[in-house]
Design goal:
This protein is α/β, with parallel strands linked by helices. It has a domain at 100-354: Aspartate Aminotransferase, domain 2, CATH 3.40.640.10. The chain is built from 14 helices and 11 strands. Strands 1-7-6-5-4-2-3 form a 7-stranded mixed sheet, with helices on both faces. Strands 8-9-11-10 form a 4-stranded antiparallel sheet. The chain is globular. The structure holds pyridoxal-5'-phosphate (PLP). Pyridoxal-5'-phosphate is lined by residues 80, 147-149, 192, 194, 242, 244-246, 271, 273-274, 300, 312. Pyridoxal-5'-phosphate (PLP) is lined by residues 80, 147-149, 192, 194, 242, 244-246, 271, 273-274, 300, 312. One of its GO terms (cellular component) is cytoplasm. Homodimer.
Length: 480
C-alpha cells in the first residue's frame, strides 16, 4: 500500500467509524449469530495476490459487524464500560505509525518520558499522595500496564520478592521454596477473579475473606485472618483492597485495611479498576480514604476515562522490589545512560510495550479535566435516574448502594424468576445486561457504559426491562 492509498483508506475508515458511532443506537446490541458463523463467509486460505482496500471495506458489514456486540451502544449495560473516544483512536494511529517497542529508555526516549509525565498528570488528577509520583523526586512513579490483572500480578510479585528478602535476612538457613510455601495473601471474597489468579501465577496461597453487610472487607477481619495464619506458621505478605468490586461496586475499607497491613508489614495493593476514574472528581475521593497507606495503586483509564483499551495506570511507592524481581539485564539491552530514567521492561511482565501514553496525552488534552469530570458525573447521575425508576415499581428492589455508574437490582422473588427475566431481556437483544450474585442471591446489573448514553436511553432500557418483567410474571401466573 502506498501513501496515497493509505490516505484514501484512512479517510474512508474515518468516515465509516463516525457513521458507525453516530448510528450505533440503531444496531441490535447483541448479535444473533451462532458459533462458527464466520467460517462460511471467508475463504479457507489467505489470498495469493493482493486485494484492494475497498474489498476489505465492503467486508466489514458483511463479515465483521454481524458478529459484533456493540459495547458502545447506549443499550449496552453489561460488565463495566470499556472506554472509547476519537482522540484515543487517533493516538493509536500515531502509535501504530511510530511502532516502537519502548522496553527501555533508549529504545524510544519519548515513549518512556511521556509515560512518566502522563502518570504524574493522572496521579495529580486523582490527588495521589506525592510518594507515588515521579515528579516528587523520591522513589515512586507510575507505569502503564496492559490490564488491572497484570497490575495485581506485578504487585504480588514485588511483594513476594520483598518478603523473601526480609525473611532470608532473619532466617538465612531457610530455602526459597520453604519460605514461598509459607507465604499467604488476602483479598475480599468479592475481589475480581484476576486477583486470586495472580496468586496462582505467583505460586502462593490466597485467602478470600468475608465482607460486611455492605460487601466491604473490613480491617478487623483482615487482622484476625493475619493473626490466625501467623499462629499457623504462615507468612502474610500481600493484601488487595478493591475499590469498586465487579460484583456490586462495593468499596473495601482501605483506611482500616491499610492500618493493619502497615502494622503487619504486608504489601497493600489497591485495585480500583473501574471506579478509580471517578476519583478525578473530588466529591468521590472519600472512597479512597487511606490511600496514603497503600504500596501500589491501580485503575483503568481504559474502563471509564475515555482512553481506549489497553491503558491500566499503576503507581508504586517503591518500585525497587518489582524492578529487582524482574531484572534480567542481557548485554544487548544495556546502554550508556542506563539508570537515569525508568526502563519500563523491569516494571512489567512482557518485554515489549507499545506507545500507550500517547492516547492518555491526547485524551487529557482534548477533553481537559473538566469534561472528563462531567462525563463521570453524567454516568453516575444516569445510574441514579435508573435507580429512581426501579424504586417507583414495587415489584423490583435495589440490592446494593448505588455509588457509581452501576445499579444492582432484581424482581422481588426467587432466583429462578430473575434468571428468567435476564434470559428474556438478553434474548430480545434490545439491551444487554449480565447478572451477579451475593450470598446466593441472583440479581441483574445495569451498568452505564456508553459515551453516548443520555437520559432517554435509560428510560428506554427501563421500559424494556419492565416489558420483559411483565412477560415473565404473566407467564409465571399462567403456569401456576
Ligand atoms: C475490580 C476489577 N478488577 C480487575 C478487573 C480486571 O480488569 P482487566 O481486564 O483490566 O484485567 C476488573 C474488570 O472488570 C474489575 O472490575
Amino acid at each position: 500500500m502506498d501513501s496515497d492509498n493509505f490516505k484514501d483508506f484512512a479517510k474512508e475508515m474515518a468516515e465509516y467509524i463516525t457513521n458507525y458511532m453516530q448510528n450505533i443506537r440503531d444496531r441490535r446490541v447483541l448479535p444473533t449469530v451462532e458459533p462458527g458463523y464466520m467460517k462460511p463467509l471467508l475463504p479457507s486460505e489467505a489470498p495469493q495476490s493482493p486485494e484492494e482496500w475497498k474489498d476489505i471495506m465492503a467486508d466489514i458489514e458483511r463479515v465483521i459487524m454481524p458478529g459484533v456486540t456493540h459495547w458502545h451502544s447506549p443499550k449496552f449495560h453489561a460488565y463495566f464500560p470499556t472506554a472509547q473516544s476519537y482522540p484515543a483512536i487517533v493516538a493509536d494511529m500515531l502509535s501504530g505509525a511510530i511502532a516502537c517497542v519502548g522496553f527501555s529508555w533508549i529504545a524510544s526516549p519519548a515513549c518512556t518520558e511521556l509515560e512518566v509525565i502522563m502518570l504524574d498528570w493522572l496521579g495529580k488528577m486523582i490527588d495521589l499522595p506525592k510518594e507515588f509520583l515521579a515528579c516528587s523526586g523520591g522513589k515512586g512513579g507510575g507505569v502503564i500496564q496492559g490490564t488491572a490483572s497484570e497490575a495485581s500480578l506485578v504487585a504480588l510479585l514485588g511483594a513476594k520478592a520483598k518478603k523473601l528478602k526480609q525473611v532470608k535476612e532473619q532466617h538465612p538457613e531457610w530455602t526459597n521454596p520453604e519460605i514461598i510455601d509459607k507465604l499467604i495473601a488476602y483479598c475480599s471474597c468479592q475481589a475480581h477473579s484476576s486477583v486470586e489468579r495472580a496468586g496462582l501465577f505467583g505460586g502462593v496461597k490466597f485467602r478470600l475473606l468475608p465482607v460486611d453487610e455492605k460487601c466491604k472487607l473490613r480491617g478487623d477481619v483482615l487482622a484476625k485472618a493475619i493473626q490466625e495464619d501467623k499462629e499457623k506458621g504462615l507468612i502474610p505478605f500481600y493484601v488487595v483492597a478493591t475499590l469498586g468490586t465487579t460484583v456490586s461496586c462495593a468499596f473495601d475499607r482501605l483506611d482500616e485495611m491499610g492500618v493493619v497491613a502497615n502494622r503487619e508489614d504486608v504489601w497493600l495493593h489497591v485495585d480500583a479498576a473501574y471506579a478509580g476514574s471517578a476519583f478525578i472528581c473530588p466529591e468521590y475521593r472519600y472512597l479512597m480514604k487511606g490511600i496514603e497507606l497503600a504500596d501500589s495503586y491501580n485503575f483503568n483509564p481504559h474502563k471509564w476515562m475515555l482512553v481506549n483499551f489497553d491503558c491500566s495506570a499503576m503507581w508504586l511507592k517503591d518500585p525497587t522490589y518489582v524492578i529487582n524481581a524482574f531484572n534480567v539485564d542481557p548485554l544487548y539491552l544495556k546502554y550508556d545512560t542506563q539508570g537515569s530514567a525508568p526502563d519500563y521492561r523491569h516494571w512489567q511482565i512482557p518485554l515489549g510495550r507499545r506507545f500507550r501514553s500517547l492516547k492518555l496525552w491526547f485524551v487529557l488534552r482534548l477533553y481537559g479535566i473538566e469534561n472528563l469530570q462531567k462525563y463521570i458525573r453524567k454516568h453516575i447521575a444516569q445510574a441514579h435516574e435508573f435507580e429512581a425508576m426501579v424504586l417507583t415499581d414495587p415489584r423490583f428492589e435495589i440490592v446494593a448502594e448505588v455509588l457509581m455508574g452501576l445499579v444492582c437490582f432484581r424482581l422481588k422473588g426467587s432466583n429462578d424468576l430473575n434468571e428468567a427475566l435476564l434470559k428474556r431481556i438478553n434474548g430480545a437483544g434490545n439491551i444487554h445486561l449480565v447478572p451477579s450474585k451475593i450470598n446466593d442471591m441472583f440479581f441483574l446489573r445495569l451498568s452505564i457504559c456508553s459515551r453516548y448514553s443520555e437520559s432517554k436511553d435509560i428510560e428506554y432500557s427501563w421500559k424494556e426491562i419492565k416489558l420483559r418483567a411483565n412477560e415473565v410474571l404473566e407467564e409465571q401466573s399462567v403456569s401456576k
